[in-house]
Amino acid sequence: MKTPNAIVVLAASIKQDASDRWVSTGLTQADDTLGAPGGTLRVCTAAVLAKRYPGAVIIAMGGKGYDVPRSYSKDRPLLCEILWQELRGAGIPAERILLERESGTTYQQLRALSALMGKHGWIHVAVVTNRWHIPRTHAIIESKFPELESIITFVSAEDVLIADNSDEWESGIVQAYKSEWLARRMLKEEQGIRQIMDGTYDFK
Prior knowledge:
The protein is of the alpha/beta class. It contains eight helices and seven strands. It has helices at residues 29-32, 39-52, 79-89, 106-120, 134-144, 157-164, 166-177, 180-198, and strands spanning 6-9, 14-16, 22-24, 57-61, 97-100, 125-129, 152-156.
């Protein structure tokens, strides 16, 4: 991968932990029921890449979010604020983190990213998300932001973490990708890709 100007963390879904603190989802069946799973992996990957590319700014994406249960408090932090806390906890200095506060859906996050790239003149950006999420995200780029294809590199959080520390990550990731629940989610992602290609996808 080329040295990125920015490392972008796409927001996944969120939950409250045992101490009622808002956190990103893990790659588990329980967290899959809350919306997009695997946000914790995205944060940990950003921390790995931040050390590898010390000159890159880290972008935490997301406003109130879209795919979150209605029972969640309306006073909850923004998705990017939750990511900010987690990135700080992973050792990334506050001055390296930029918050994007408006987007909700994957499409909105990519649209906001496009604007940020134009504003800052970045020539290469690493976009961190989960392996299951990359194909649809790439399809959105191809459909709506083709000018970014040569600038963006998608980074699979799972692949980076296994390469960085297989003892900690590989078993759980392999187990998740063999599961029925994640297979169902990937089928939904494939359906979304087909809708993008045939013009019926709801870009919102």
